[in-house]
Amino acid sequence: MGAPATAIAALAKTRTGKRIALATILFLLLLNALILTPLIAIPFAVAGQAVTGTIASGAPPMVSGEWGYPLAGRYTKGRGYGFNPVIGCGYCSTAHQGYDMAQGCGSTIYAAGPGRVITAGTYSGYGITVRIDHGDSLITLYGHMTTGSLLVRDGDEVTAGTPIGAEGNTGRSFGCHLHFEVSLGGRAIDPQPFMAARGLPLA
Ligand SMILES: [Zn+2]
After folding, report:
1. CATH says 65-196 is which class?
2. N or C: which end of the chain has fewer CB within 10 A?
3. pLDDT digits (tens, 9 = 90+) for 45-61
4. Cα(55) to centroid of ligand 1, in Å?
5. Judging by beta carbons within 10 Å of its beta carbon (0-12, 13-18, 19+), is residue 101 exposed, middle or buried?
6. How far does residue 172's CA lie from ligand 1's centre (Å)?
7. What pLDDT does residue 10 have?
């Protein structure tokens, strides 16, 4: 009586053990499908968006993760960050705080990342400007927009790709362009490595 009971118990234990092992394998496979596959698929998805974003006009800007380009498609690079005097422009700053990019007057400008609008209007030398607070003292600024083109207000929640206004020449500007500025802890940082770190290299 004692021996068969022990044997059954041992068998049951073994079956349970097998079931647990099988369940663990299935769980790991499911985990792999849910977590690892998207991680592998993301670079390809980004690459696919890069192609459509560059070729198609009027398409939304390329987005990588939570961040995207402030302009959709091709643009002309202007002044980069740092010492960049503008020849013939006495009032233009020599130590450039942002990254200039141009597509032409009136081109749509998009929020580069998720956050809350903290400025939507005239902002000193930047002219018509939008500033977005992304939290953790990270702020992006979009300067020199066309008068009357603003599509957001103070307090609006935006995500990457939300249209916010149009490229213009307001404020201390020397031709239509977008002045894209990124600041961390109240200090402007170079937007190029910042965007590159988010899979969005600037030209
Ligand atoms: Zn600028």
Report:
1. mainly beta
2. N
3. 333 333 333 333 468 99
4. 26
5. buried
6. 9
7. 52
Q: Exposed e or buried b for every residue in 6-44, given b needs 16+ CB within 10 A?
A: eeeeeeeeeeeeeeeeeeeeeeeeeeeeeeeeeeeeeee
What are the sequence ranges of the domains in the chain?
Answer: 1-55, 65-196
- Global pTM value: 0.70
**Ligand 1 center from residue 70 Cα (angstroms):** 14
- Residue 119's Cβ-count burial label (10 Å; 0-12, 13-18, 19+) is middle
| Ligand 1 centroid to residue 28 C-alpha, Å | 50
**pLDDT by residue (tens digit) across 14-53?**
665 556 455 544 444 444 444 443 333 333 333 333 333 3
Distance 97 CA to ligand 1 centre (A): 7
**Could you tell me the distance, in angstroms and rounded to a whole number, from the CA of residue 165 to the centre of ligand 1?**
16
Distance from residue 73's CA to the centre of ligand 1 (Å):
19
CB atoms within 10 A of CB 155: 9
CA distance linking residue 203 with residue 188, whole number of Å: 19
